[in-house]
């Protein structure tokens, strides 16, 4: 059985989904793909179902009843992947902001480099972001600085969503306790990994903003991250994390 599964959450990604699937599945390493679709009104799931006949045994689809949030989509995907005994479980966006060619870099960091969690990092070697307005670059960058300050994690890109987990990490985290859905979800997963003393490494990537479809970022998601970091730290201090 293949040991790698790439989880791609979708909501209205009809413009990107076929291209991203084909790109991931054309990599030298034979990745599998799991799409978690939140009942996209643009029928993203239908396109995935059509492609499943072409990529039988490599492309999988989980359809949910509505827009339930990024964090819950990934937790759903983690459980699915763990049940099927995948050893390396990836997070990836559907919009090509994460380059599929970088998947093997993350895999190598875990499989050969000894990392338990490999992060595709925008900031570990400076600021490697293309097509973002300066205001969003600064917001993202300083969010990671803020997370470092509050949590003590020496991670340059705490909100990154391009990640490879070894299965032992996800088995060691109580997924029932994951509560956040946006930026805060990404921070929470890294912090729980950090608190379990797993080895975390950052792999430099170039992040390119989407050219098709609409961003899911909102002020509510950013607010959740700001307040969520404090909540996570307090839970750690009182041993309830």
UniProtKB/TrEMBL annotation:
GO terms for molecular function: dolichyl-phosphate beta-D-mannosyltransferase activity. Gene3D superfamilies: Spore Coat Polysaccharide Biosynthesis Protein SpsA, Chain A. GO terms for cellular component: membrane. It holds the Pfam family Glycos_transf_2. Keywords: Glycosyltransferase, Transferase. Transmembrane segments: none annotated. Residues 6-171 form the Glycosyltransferase 2-like domain. InterPro entries: DPM1-like, Glyco_trans_2-like, Nucleotide-diphossugar_trans. One of its GO terms (biological process) is glycolipid biosynthetic process. Belongs to the glycosyltransferase 2 family. This is Dolichol-phosphate mannosyltransferase.
């Amino acid at each position: 059985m293949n040991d790698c599964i790439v989880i791609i959450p979708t909501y209205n990604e009809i413009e990107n989904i076929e291209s991203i699937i084909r790109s991931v599945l054309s990599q030298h390493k034979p990745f599998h793909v799991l799409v978690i679709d939140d009942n996209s009104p643009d029928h993203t799931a239908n396109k995935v179902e059509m492609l499943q006949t072409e990529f039988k045994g490599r492309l999988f689809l989980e359809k949910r009843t509505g827009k339930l949030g990024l964090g819950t989509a990934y937790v759903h995907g983690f459980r699915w992947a763990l049940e099927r005994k995948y050893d390396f479980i990836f997070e990836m966006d559907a919009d090509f902001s994460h380059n599929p060619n970088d998947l093997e870099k993350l895999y190598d960091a875990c499989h050969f480099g000894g990392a338990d969690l490999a992060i595709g990092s925008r900031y570990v070697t400076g600021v490697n972001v293309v097509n973002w307005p300066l205001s969003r670059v600064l917001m993202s960058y300083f969010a990671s600085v803020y997370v470092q300050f509050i949590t003590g994690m020496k991670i340059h890109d705490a909100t990154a969503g391009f990640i490879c987990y070894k299965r032992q990490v996800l088995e060691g985290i109580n997924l029932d306790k994951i509560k956040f859905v946006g930026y805060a979800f990404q921070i929470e997963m890294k912090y729980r990994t950090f608190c379990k003393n797993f080895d975390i490494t950052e792999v430099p990537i170039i992040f390119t903003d989407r050219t098709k479809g609409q961003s899911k970022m909102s002020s509510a998601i950013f607010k959740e991250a700001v307040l969520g970091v404090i909540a996570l730290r307090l839970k750690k201090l009182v041993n309830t994390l």
